[in-house]
Amino acid sequence: MTPILNHPIDHVVVGQGPPGGSWHRIDPNVLTLSLGSWMSLPEVPFPACTINEKRACSRDVAAYYEKYVTDMELTKYFVNDALVTMVKKIGDTEESRAAKKRTIWVKKLDRDVVERVKDYFVPVNEDSENRCFITNAINCLMSRNARRSRHCRRPRAMHQDTLKKINQAKSESILIPKHERKKSISCCSCCGETENNRSPKPLLHSQSLDTFTKPVPFRERLHSSICDEKLPRWLVQSTDVDTGEVTRYSCKYLVLACGSYDSPNRLEIFKNGNDPEWLMHDLRSLESRLDQKLYEGDSVDPVLIVGAGLSAADAVMAVRSRNIPVVHVFRGRSAEFTKQLPENMYPEYHKVRQMMNDGGSTYPLYTAYPEHSLVDFNSETQTVKLASKAGDEVKLKLSFAAVLIGSRPCISFMPPTMQLGIFADREIDSKTNPVEINPLTHEVAGQEGLFAVGPLAGDNFVRYIPGGAVAVVSELYRRWNLVES
Question: 13-90+231-262+408-479 in CATH: which number?
């Protein structure tokens, strides 16, 4: 293995809530899918679960991650209760676009004069169009006197004297070390790198050329940020959720680690207008409203649950545990989660599967409507209309409805022109369309300096996330030459 030096990387973590993210918004009594020991992070073991339970409660996971930041002395890097509202490339400005146009002009000029300078340079690679503007400008200056300009206004005697110097320079041989002959000589004094990522070296030319080649202040004439690797690439804007204070960060590298629970999937009939007050898209809100109703002593009509996944199963169990009738609607014939969950480890979910298959005839406070869809609703009367595949319709009166059909990452703060998914024409989804990344570095394809980890990159379990974080840090160490050879 390659040893990595202990060089802390200065960074800031901007989050909408406390450390632990969405674990603080999940029902605290829900058990994790993974074993409790699989929820741990490096150096701090996860607290042992109860004797009869190998899985951990969500509240314990949330507390563990929040305490982890404190124990590892990472609090100084965290900015909590801040909502990221905008991310954009710093180079996407009118000034930078104008600078890029000037660079293109210099590259075009380089193609016009390449024949003039071939006597003074070692042959370079065919990708000369990728040279930085500094190299192109130097090449232009060094070749300026190689031929007489058609519009030259200098005295004839001065011009003949210059030609004499050029002829003398051409007659002198240029000694080039053997190990330098196959290297590209394109270098960038701004970023301090050559095309082969080595330290910049002077251009190989004869000493006689130095006698009539004068330096030109390129930094004053061209925008230096085009190839300056030390300047930031990204601008991030966040807003404090309590005070409304706006903060902006500029950075060279940006890591997206937003999770996948910020934007719940919605039914078509609820997409065009405001949600009725009795409609919810998360279990925590549903439980809070039910507890308030029960506390006030009001009678509670049946609760509608839409979905066939684990979140819907959690909602069914939560509502029935409060002795409230459940109406469960799902499009398929049975549950969607039975194949990957062994019954001995997840008995509660297999219990819900049995209820869904049975239809509710032998289970009190539960009625299933398999192969049905929600097609209409009335906000004032709190009624909904269900339709089966055969066209049969059912009208029900409800107290609340919870549509739990999955969720997606919310990256609305990213520029709309950035299509980051594997399928560019689709929305980002942690299961069906994650962000397209380099699997070795987790850098987003086509976006230099932008990384993605966690569910955004398709890692939907905690035990996989540290691997993505290590990949990002390893790549940063490599770029900064912090890895021991």
Answer: 3.50.50.60
